[in-house]
Amino acid sequence: xxxxxxxxxxxxxxxxxxxxxxxxxxxxxxxxxxxxxxxxxxxxxxxxxxxxxxxxxxxxxxxxxxxxxxxxxxxxxxxxxxxxxxxxxxxxxxxxxxxxxxxxxxxxxxxxxxxxxxxxxxxxxxxxxxxxxxxxxxxxxxxxxxxxxxxxxxxxxxxxxxxxxxxxxxxxxxxxxxxxxxxxxxxxxxxxxxxxxxxxxxxxxxxxxxxxxxxxxxxxxxxxxxxxxxxxxxxxxxxxxxxxxxxxxxxxxxxxxxxxxxxxxxxxxxxxxxxxxxxxxxxxxxxxxxxxxxxxxxxx
Length: 300
Description:
Keywords: Amino-acid biosynthesis, Histidine biosynthesis, Hydrolase. The chain is α/β, with parallel strands linked by helices. It contains nine helices and twelve strands.
């Protein structure tokens, strides 16, 4: 049955591929029970458009998001007898006004949930490319610990303002950090910030996604990496799984490797979202790593 609550399509995200319906069909073909759709919240400043959006305006982005919600609702109804579809969005936090914009969009479109993700530090993109990542390092005068600390400080601001149901790629700041260099999270001042965020997220009932897309970026582990995931589990944090798919071909991407990762760390129970009694709730699937889904898809 497992699931994913972090998905994108080329129809509504320029750095993804294919249409949203193909993502839904791929999830059905893999016998997923619940699929969460989570296209990006639109950005509201022209300088925050990405290179592939050079022919677009921020007004276009907002229209695309409205079109996404309409299409997601159509697909939810069309395939309701084959899969449960929840309609959410992935957050941004770029400027002081971004978080209020997210709240307004969540209310306007009655979104089922939010994936709380941070893709910028001090208004600069974090995960777009190695080159832009190194510009961020330069912004902190080469002090990678300061950059990581700022990431977790801004992440806390996002968590406090939005209390997202699902926390997206918790340690995304590691994405392009050279593995030959010391891990800033090994430093006390950085790790304490990450631990603080974990504690806060657990306190309001967040679910941490274990995101398999990290392997596509060449990282050793899924997000969160094993040091942080172990801490989350030891503190009783709730986890789910996500493929962060950017098209139908990514659905359940690296889920076989993900299964091994979960088993290695003793993470056998997973949480998922489902509409119960008219509202979306978090439910637990005990012994999820033994579910028939894995063998049915040749992932064991």
